[in-house]
User: What shape does this take?
Amino acid sequence: MYRDHEPVKRAVRFVTKQRKRRPGSSKDPQAHLDGRFNRLSPDYSVRPSPGEPPLVSDPPLSDPGATLEPMSPKQRYVGSGPYCYANSLAMVLGPHAPDPSAIEVLTGSPFGFEMLEGNTPLFDPLGWEPDTGLDDALARLGWTCERQDGGGPDEAVDRLREASAAAPVLAGPVEMGLLLHQPGSGRAIGADHFVVVTEVTADTVYFHDPHGHPHATLPIPAFTAAWQGDSIGYTDAPFVLRTAFRRERETGLEAAIRATLPDAAAWLAGRPGLAPPGSLGGAEAVERLADLVEQGLESWQRAHLTVFAIRVGARRLADAAYWLGLVGAEAAAETADYQARLVGALQYPMVAGDTTEASKILRELAPTYDLLRERLASYIS
Assistant: This one.
């Protein structure tokens, strides 16, 4: 388990400390859309003619001769990834839930990049937090819930027992390092996580852990130690849970995605007032990371990037590309897909220590955030 490695523990603790303080060519991002392709750009010159279905439309299942296009947003990534809150929300919404990839896009997380206090890289918007993202996704989907927090451990467990007797409960953030059913756990490392509690008996909490542990169990004292979340910087109260999920209006998924485009564009501009002093967003933040890579990253920064940030960043952008294309925002989808390829391509050079290649990729990535914002704005009426 990666959490056994001391550099990762230091990385996660550092990120939490920062969170707590919250109140083509490399010079031409248009190149991948205008026919001047670099080594990572797909051939986007293959486009449908006017009146034809969008390129991202899937071939009919009944067509035995259907063939795949060269790699495009419709060839989706399917696999593991750190999508704990999106997966947990999908579980509590049950048969009414959209795909977790759509939930992740609706949270706004794919639309930006930030360097907290100039040192901690995260592939999410400047000023964004998971708690805010969950509420935004629920609202876009037409759902509400009751959010409860605070009190002591006994009071919190009573609330959790009562709520889970009626329906599954979304609990979190919890401290991942204190979830003792996971190998290598045992001390707080500042890693936030979300789980779905299904039952609380006299001495045991039963829950689904989206990190690969269905029907997990923990003794009540062990669960509450993790659930208290003292090491999670962006929450100001312990024992956070969401329950009583109810749909207030019928909203189609594609309509929800379209409705979030203005928020996505706004997130790409960043919200510095919600970030700690010294934080950077967008192109400036990516250029800052490229500079740090060239100067030599600290061990915690490299561990943070290779264990978590690059993985989740590439997946978020790949999912954004898919859903943007599905709702007809093809130019924005192409840019997000291009970003996903760049971020995914960072993993090997970062692990291998190839700072020249890693910084080159980052400098190609930097100007694409402004381009994505411009392209999203063109779809906003």
User: Anything to note?
Assistant: The chain has 15 helices and nine strands.
